[in-house]
Amino acid sequence: xxxxxxxxxxxxxxxxxxxxxxxxxxxxxxxxxxxxxxxxxxxxxxxxxxxxxxxxxxxxxxxxxxxxxxxxxxxxxxxxxxxxxxxxxxxxxxxxxxxxxxxxxxxxxxxxxxxxxxxxxxxxxxxxxxxxxxxxxxxxxxxxxxxxxxxxxxxxxxxxxxxxxxxxxxxxxxxxxxxxxxxxxxxxxxxxxxxxxxxxxxxxxxxxxxxxxxxxxxxxxxxxxxxxxxxxxxxxxxxxxxxxxxxxxxxxxxxxxxxxxxxxxxxxxxxxxxxxxxxxxxxxxxxxxxxxxxxxxxxxxxxxxxxxxxxxxxxxxxxxxxxxxxxxx
Length: 329
Ligand code: SF4
Hints:
This protein is α/β, with parallel strands linked by helices. The protein has one domain (3-109, 153-325): 3-Layer(aba) Sandwich (Rossmann fold). Helices cover 32% and strands 25% of the residues. It has an eight-stranded mixed beta sheet with strand order 6-7-8-3-9-10-12-11, with helices on both faces. Strands 2-1-4-5 form a four-stranded antiparallel beta sheet. Strand 11 and strand 12 form a beta hairpin. Helix 4 (112-122) packs across helix 5. The chain starts with a strand and ends in a 10-residue tail after the last strand. The structure holds iron/sulfur cluster (SF4). Iron/sulfur cluster is lined by residues 250-251, 290, 292-293, 296, 298-300, 303, 308, 321-323. This is Peptide/nickel transport system ATP-binding protein. Residues 5-257 form the ABC transporter domain. Keywords: ATP-binding, Nucleotide-binding, Transport. Belongs to the ABC transporter superfamily. GO terms for molecular function: ATP binding; ATP hydrolysis activity.
């Protein structure tokens, strides 16, 4: 079994407090609430949803950049949810992240050479500074930059080049899993395709597993194998990417798809348009029953009362919506 990531009942709650001197806990923002999924080696698993749905918090919790409130995060067969800093070190190396904004993720006071050699020396991947330098140059070339770029500073590069440097840094420690947090949304459209092609090339060559966080569904379809749609901290629909895009069941997934352009007019005809009305409800006071019911054109009486369980539509498709019980969905 080639499962490399197994997330079980993951929760991340942020307490809300009132008062200045004496703080009183008045509730929680349930940013990630009982999220479970598996990712296989060399797969690209996409987490999608509107901003505030919990996709980035899920990723940050999995990376242990923030501590989970509850649940299991199994990486390469080990539950890392309770490991301390020292125990986490080998996993920090195995899991890397490329952020949305390359400007914020590269230290402006360090040269590209320093940025690339630092993780190599820290994780003791090389034995000497010279070896670190040589490997850094090799990494720069891999991402399409040149050896003479080593002495330059981040501000001397374009957005696309900075993202290439961030990718080189992420790959420097030989990771197995790379989180891509909206990695192209801050870039010029003309550069986006180049960066995506680079990700696909490295996945092929290095056997990487990607967790891809995005709201760009056209891109998700293009690069992902599996997709999980999140709404107010929970996964509402999940499965193989073709299955979800060709046969979406959850009205929220349908609405997201309605909002994204698709190249195939046959699919366009089959697809019923659902236009989302109203904004995402506050994560502090989520609606009763199905969280989507205030915005759902198909809501039934029970939708307002009880949260729907996760139904298996097929082996490769799960959805949390009562519509599954109706025929002909
Ligand atoms: Fe709509 Fe009901 Fe399905 Fe929720 S469970 S998405 S309210 S039909």
